[in-house]
Amino acid sequence: MMQFTSLYFLFGFLPLAWLIYQPLAKTRFANVYIMLASFAFYAFGSLRSLFILLFILVWNYISAFQIAGDQKHRKQSLWICIAGNILVLFVYRCLSLWFPFITQWLPKAASLPAMMPAGLSFYIFSCLSYVFDVYYQKVPVLKSFTNLAVYAAFFGRVNMGPIGNYQHMETQLASHPCTNRKNYQGSQLFIQGLFRKVVLADGFGQVFAALAFNSTWLGSLLHGFAYFFQLYFDFSGYSRMARGLGFLFGFEIPANFDLPYTALSVQDFWRRWHISLTSWFRNYVYIPLGGNRVSRPRWIINILCVWLLTGLWHGASWPFIVWGLLQGGLILSEKLALKNSMNKWPRLCRHLWVIVWQLIGWTFFFSPSLSAAFSWIGRYFFIGISSLADREALFWLSGSLLLFVMGILLSSQLSKTLSIHLQRRQKRWWPVWQCAGYCLELLVCLIFMVSSTVQTFLYAVF
Amino acid sequence: MKQSKRINKWLMFCLAFWIGLFSILAVLIPDIGFSSVENRTLASRPVFTLKTLWDGAYGKDAEAWYADQFPLRTSFFRMNYLVRKIMGQKEINNVFLGHGALLANPLAGNEAIMQENMNAAAGFAYTTKIPTSVLIVPSAAQIQTQKLPANAPVQSQAQYLQAASEMAQPAVWLDPQPVLQEHAKESLYYKTDHHMTSFGAALAAGLLMDSIGETLDIDSFEFMPVSTSFQGTLASKTGSFLMKDTIEIAVSQNNPDYLVSWADGSMSASIYQSAALEQKDQYQLFLGANQSLIHIETNLENDLNLLIFKDSYANEMVQFLLPYCKSITLLDPRYFYDDLDLVIETYQINQAAIIYSSDLFLTQSKLADVIATLDLFELPVSDEPEESAAASESEMTAEETDLQPQEAQED
After folding, report:
1. How many CB atoms lie within 10 A of CB A290?
2. ipTM, two decimals
3. Chain B nearest CA to A338, separation (Å)
4. Apex A162 CA angle, A137 and A205, nearest 5
5. Of A52, A190, A196, whose CA–CA distance to A118 is shortest?
6. Model confidence pLDDT, tens digit, residues A173-231
7. Inter-chain CB proximity B67 and A7 less than 8 Å
8. Mean pLDDT over all residues of chain A?
9. Alpha carbon B318 to chain centroid, angstroms
10. How confident is residue B7, by pLDDT bands cut at 50, 70 and 90?
C-alpha cells in the first residue's frame, strides 16, 4: 500500500491530487473526484484489495437500504450485514490462525493474513458505524454511493483510520469547502504527523529492534519503553497526517489522540488513546448491551465483553486477548475497588499507575506469545534478568537519550507549555519561528525519508 | 491576527514551493542507473501490467523507483549522517560512528558454515599434501577498540575463531590478533572502509610469510601515498562525507619483475589498477574488482608457487608477497567455477593459504563448495577414540613445543 511517508505519495500523489481538486472543490464533482482518487490510491497497493474494498462498500450500501426499507425484518438485515462484514474480517485474520487444519485443504489459506487488504478493520468498522446509525435511525439512508465511499474510503484514512463516525461526518459529506484556514491547519497537522512517524516512531523502532534479545533489567526496560513511545508516535503520527489530509480536502476529522500518556487513570487513558475506536465500541457495543444501566454482574460482563472484542480487533492471538481483558480488568478495578481513593493519590502516583500498566499492556502487544510477554514483564521488575545492565543497554541508552527526551516532551503537556511560554516571550517573532520550525521539520523528515527504506506503520496490520 | 494570517500564507507558500519544486524535478530529471555512493544499481521505472497492479508489485516497484531516483538523493543521504550525529546516534546501518573512524559491527558467525570452511581447509591440506595456512583477519571493531564509541556492543566472533583454530590440522592456523593488537593504535584499517590499510596488510602478510619460513621485512618496503580522497564502503553505508582516507602502496626495494594474468585473459605488468583511483571504490586499486582467478608470475628463481583462496582482504597483501614468490595464484571462491585440480597442476602449487575476513569466513561457505570439487577430496580421518585423539593432539603440541624453544633460542 502507498504510505504517507513514501516520497511517491508526498511528492507525487498528494500534490497532484490536491491541485486537481482545487477547481473541482466547489462543484458537484468534488466527492466523485475524491472517491476516484481514493480508489486509485488504494489500487496502487493492489488491485485485488480494491475489489474487496468495493465489495464491502456495496454490501453495506445495499444492507443499509434493506434495513431502512424493510421495517419488519430490519433486525435480521442488520445481523446479516454484520455477519457479512465479520466474515470477511474472520477469513483474513482468524481462519488459518484458529483452524490451521484448513490449510491442508486450502494451502492458500495460510497466506491470507499476509494478503489482508490494508486497513480492512478500519473501513469495515467505519461502514458498520454507518449501518448502525441507519439502524438506530440517527441518520437517513444514503442515496449516494459516492458519499459512502468518500466517508469510508477517503485515502487520508482508509489505511489506518481514524475510524469514521458517520453521524458526525454526515453534514460534511454534503459540503466540505476548502479554505485557507483548513489548508494551513492541514499542512501543520500533516508535517507534525510526518515528524512523529519518520523521526520519532522509526527512531524508537530502531532502539526496540536493537534490544530485542537483551535480557538485562535496563535493556528490557529500554526495549519496553522504546515500544511504548514507538506505538504512540507511530499511530498518533499517522492519525495527525490523516487529519491533515482531511483538512486539505475540506474535511474536519476529529482528533484520535489527546496526550494519552498524561492520563491520570486507565479510564482516562482510554478517553485519550485511539478515541475513534473507543467511541465506536462504546456507541455500538457497550451502550446496546445496556451500558451501566444494568445489574452490576451484567455491567461487569459488558465491560469485559467490550474489551475482549477490542483485544480481538487488534489481533486474533492470546496476547491480544489477554491485553484486552487486562484493560477491562483495570477499568473495573478503578471503578469498583479504587473508586474515590484514587482521586486522593498524588498526581505523580496516578501518572505512574497509568504508565506502568500501559507499559505492561504494550508488552503483551509486541510479544509473540504469552510466555514471552511474561518473561519481558518479569524483567521490568528484576525477575529473570541476566544483570542490571550491559554494554548494549548502556550504548543504546546514551545513543537515544535525545530521542527519549523528545518523546517525553511531545507526549506530555511540556511541549504545549513550552510553546505557550515561547509564544508569550517572543510575541513578535513567534510566527516566524513557527514557520521556520515547520520548514525545518519537513526538511528533517525528507532527509530521513530519502535515507531510509520505507518502514511500515505498526497499526496497518490491524 | 493579521500578522498570523500573513505568516500562515508564508508557511503555505514555503511548503507548496518545496513540495512543488521536488515534485517537478523528480519528473524532469532523467533516471540514474548506478549510485556510486551507495555502490548499487538504482531501481528503474517499473513496467505497468494488469498482473503487477493486481498483486501490488507495480506499486512497490514504483515507490522504489521514485525513492531511488529522487532529486538530490545523495545530498539528503549525507545530511542524514549529520542529523543523526547531532541527535547523538552512535550507529548507522550496523556501523559504529567511532572516534575518528567508522567501524563495522562484525557479523554474527554461523557455526555450521565455519565448520564447513574449516573442514574444507583441513581437507585441502590433507588431500593435496600441500602445506596450507589459514589466516582469518578480524574486523577493526575487534582490534581497535579504543576507536569505538563508549559501550559499543561489538558482536563477538571469538568463540567461532577459537573453535576454527582447533579444527585446522593438518593446515596451520595463523592468529593475526596478537600482532594487530600490538599495533592497534596505528593505522591498521581504513577510517571509512572495512579493509586493512597497507600497513595492516603488511603485518598480516608478515605472519603468513613466517609460516612459510620466510621473514618479511616491512622496513624494506617504501609506503607511497597514491590517494588522499578514498571514501570506502563504510562511508557509503552511513552517508559520512567528512572523513577521507589515504591509500598507500608499498613497493619493495627487492621487487621482482612480474606479469599479471587477469581472469578475462588480459595481462599487465602491475598489480595496481590506477584507473580505480578515479572511481568511487578506490580499493580496487589493489588487483581490481573481484574476479575468479588471477595469476602472477615473477622472475624470481625460487620454487615458491603460492595459491591463495581469498576474499578482497588478501588483495592488499599481495604487494608484500611479491618479493618472495615465484608465482602467486589468487582464487576467489565466490566467482570460481573451473577445475581446481587443473589450477594446482598447471601452476605447480606447492604452498597454499586461505586468507579471508572473519565476516565472510564465518558467514559464507563458497570456499567449502570449491574445495569439495577436488578429485579424491577427503577429510583428515581420525579413527582413534576422542580421548586418544586428544592425547595425540597434546603429543603434537609437545612436538611443536619441542621445536619452538629452538626457534625462541634463535630469536
Report:
1. 13
2. 0.84
3. 42
4. 160
5. A52
6. 999 999 988 998 999 999 999 999 999 999 999 999 999 999 999 999 999 999 999 99
7. yes
8. 91
9. 14
10. low
| pLDDT at residue B1, as a whole number | 53
Dihedral sign computed on CA atoms, order A430, A432, A433, A434: positive
* CB-based contact B11 A187, cutoff 8 Å: yes
A180 touches chain B (CB under 8 A): yes
Q: Which three cell numbers stand for residue A105?
A: 485443504
Geometric angle at alpha carbon A110, from A104 and A114, rounded to 5°? 175
Point out which residues pair with B309 in neighbouring strands.
Answer: B331, B354
- Contact of B14 with chain A, judged by CB distance below 8 Å, is answered with yes
Which residue from B3, B53, B73 is facing A450, i.e. has the nearest CB? B73
CA separation, residue A54 to residues A45, A126, A146, A317, B327 (Å)? 14, 14, 11, 28, 72
* pTM reported for the whole predicted model: 0.86
**Cell 499517522, residue located:** A238
> Is B62 within 8 Å of A44 when comparing Cβ atoms?
yes
| Residue numbers in B near A451 (CB within 8 A) | 76-77, 80, 239
Sign of the torsion formed by the C-alpha atoms of A167, A155, B25 and A434? positive
Residues in chain A: 462
Burial of A80: CB neighbours in 10 Å, binned 0-12, 13-18, 19+? middle
Low-confidence ranges of chain A (pLDDT < 50): 454-462
| CB-based contact B216:B202 (threshold 8 Å) | yes
Helix/strand/coil percent split, chain A, to 5: 75, 0, 25
pLDDT, residue A114, reads: 77
Q: Which residues contact B230 (CB under 8 A, 6 or more apart)?
A: B190, B192, B193, B244, B245, B246, B247, B282, B283
Give the Cα separation of A292 and B152 in Å (integer). 55
Grid coordinates given for A300: 461487569
Average pLDDT over residues B164-188: 95
Distance, CA of A127 to chain centre: 16
Terminal C-alpha separation, chain B: 88
CB B26 within 8 A of CB B70: yes
Identify from B25, B87, B90, B95 which residue to disrupt to test chain A contact, counting A C-beta atoms within 10 A and taking the largest count.
Answer: B87
For residue range B223-277, what is the model confidence (pLDDT) as tens digits? 999 999 999 989 988 889 889 999 999 999 888 999 999 999 999 999 999 999 9
Residue the block writes with cell 558454515: B113
Cis peptide before A162 (omega within 30 of 0): yes
